[in-house]
Amino acid sequence: MAFTRSGANASLDDIAKEARVGPGTLYRHFPTREELLQAVYRSEIEKLAAAGRKFTQSMSPMEALRAWLLLFVDAIETKQIIAPALNTLIGDHKKVFASSYAKIQEAIDALVKRAIKSGDIRKDLNPMDLLRALVGVANMSTSPDWRQSARRLVDILITGSQVNK
Fold first, then answer.
1. One domain for residues 97 and 147
2. DSSP tag of 124
3. Euclidean distance between CA atoms 142 and 122, whole angstroms
4. pTM of the predicted model, to two decimals?
5. Which domain holds residue 105?
6. Cβ contacts of 26 within 8 Å, gap of 6 or more
7. Burial (Cβ within 10 Å: 0-12, 13-18, ≥19) of residue 112
8. What does the pLDDT look like over 69-126, one tens digit per residue?
């Protein structure tokens, strides 16, 4: 993805080439860079929410939670690239973040409730605590290994949340 390689200021021509469309097609669908960034951000959040539903159907509760948290780490990275540009939008960028927050919260709540119901994790676990911990590590993004650290933290969080059987 061009934004991942080059940041929010990636060349729109490069993006069009990568998408295998002409620049005119790109500009017809996304007249401004900001509209394209919003669409990319919304798409990433929708993929994350959909993954939660998919994992629930195909994985055990703990596997689903772990897999989803690892995807959340990837989403943090995307947000860090796109968020500064979204924050400069003239329109109300908070609407974009608010609707995303609701989708994220719904996904993590469902995954944690399922793991609690199965008896795999503690009943007092607050789903948002898991995300806050990962976001906290991501705030250290100036460190070159923040992503690896966040991925290790997922396993620590999962282990620490489990019920001792």
1. yes
2. T
3. 33
4. 0.76
5. 33-161
6. 12, 15, 16, 19, 36
7. buried
8. 999 888 877 665 555 555 555 455 566 667 778 888 999 999 999 999 999 999 999 9
Dihedral angle over CA of 124, 127, 131, 134, nearest 10: 40
- Which residue in 79, 65, 61 sits closest to 135, CA to CA? 79
The residue to which tokens 């401004």 are assigned: 32
Q: CA-CA distances (angstroms) from residue 50 to 76, 121, 132?
A: 16, 22, 21
> Distance (Å, rounded) from C-alpha 130 to C-alpha 83?
21
Local confidence band at 28 (pLDDT 50, 70, 90 cut-offs): confident
7 Rama sector, left if φ>0, alpha if ψ -120 to 50, beta otherwise: left
For the chain, counts of helices (H) and of strands (E) = 8, 0
Is pLDDT of 150 > 80? yes
Would you state the pLDDT for residue 16?
Answer: 74
Same domain, 23 and 38: no
DSSP-assigned beta bridge partners for residue 162: 121
Same domain for 37 and 20: no
